[in-house]
Automatic annotation (TrEMBL), chains A, B:
SUPFAM superfamilies: Homeodomain-like, Tetracyclin repressor-like, C-terminal domain. The keyword 4Fe-4S does not apply. This is Helix-turn-helix domain containing protein. It comes from the Bacteria. InterPro entries: Homeodomain-like_sf, HTH-type_TetR-like_transc_reg, HTH_TetR, Tet_transcr_reg_TetR-rel_C_sf. It holds the Pfam family TetR_N.
Amino acid sequence: MANQASTSTRSSDKILAAATKIAQAHGYGGLNLRALAEEVGIKAASLYHHFPSKADLAAAVAKRYWEDAAAALEAISAKTPDAVACLRKYPATFRAALANDNRMCLASFMTAEYDDLPDVVKTEVLTFVDVNVAWLAKMLVTAEIVGAKDARTRARAIFAAVSGAQLMARGRADIKLFDTLIDTYRAAGLLPA
Amino acid sequence: MANQASTSTRSSDKILAAATKIAQAHGYGGLNLRALAEEVGIKAASLYHHFPSKADLAAAVAKRYWEDAAAALEAISAKTPDAVACLRKYPATFRAALANDNRMCLASFMTAEYDDLPDVVKTEVLTFVDVNVAWLAKMLVTAEIVGAKDARTRARAIFAAVSGAQLMARGRADIKLFDTLIDTYRAAGLLPA
DNA sequence: ACCTGAACACCGTTCAAGT
DNA sequence: ACCTGAACACCGTTCAAGT
């Protein structure tokens, strides 16, 4: 994971990074290849030398997105021994997207676009959800909040609720609303206080 | 509300109905005027005789959407005296969208498209949220689940969570997942059991 | 290998011309 | 009044042709 980007992947990385930011604000349909190319400093046609199609580019974006999310979650649980403390930190990544120019989770936006999503992209988006749910389930069991049998279901409910909070807060461009919603989930008992 | 559609609004109604279905599956960006026109049986250019622009058409769609939602919610609370029973029925409208070819809430989709939404549309989308939150808050107070001071906040949390559940279920085209998520919210204490 | 101009099919929109 | 073909400037995308 550390020594993979030596020389040739540089411009692909630039493309992926720029595409991720655009897709987090405009979705798959709103990912404008001319605008993306301009941001990277090439012509739109040149994009096709790095990725065979918009679908494959978006799949690469979504794949890196869940890989980064998985690494970030592992970093949290590696650094924080207390599982309850880990669960308290979970909403922070969703908050960070809003703090970054009112952006949202790439996977949530693309989930809305389900009907128009190429299969290769759909797969990666689903994996993002799986990664989050698996991590949450593990923390819930470790924290002894639910038994192993109910962990996956509760984890999915937390993921859905936090996603919904991010979406609602984006609609008002109001990050404080996100914080209030998360606090309300805690007060109601969905998330550990 | 009853005697407004006599003769001239007929085709406008057909356009709005078809546009609503398309927007619930593809969003504002994915609302293709040529495809919409074909479904209605006219040419795209003819659409402009009924609505001055795509933005105005989408605003009319979103406006009717929240008006219908408001009427449906009023129908529930008028027919069901018990506020707790009303709250139990609330997720049903979101479920119905999923049951209708895995569609989703128009407002949720458009909220994701926030950055690309004309202001006239944005306003109507926000009103949909307000209508839902106001009704939920009223039911929560009547049911004595929360006090008047916390009603709005709790109502927003419920709306966000239910929206998130719909989005997640759409991503798997799995309506049973929606049911499970709602049940989990109830078990956790976010919604009344 | 990497890049591009030019072309393609498509989009929202306009408008003169039909009924 | 309502509709339309044709055109406009634009878009994402493709490809033959450059270096």
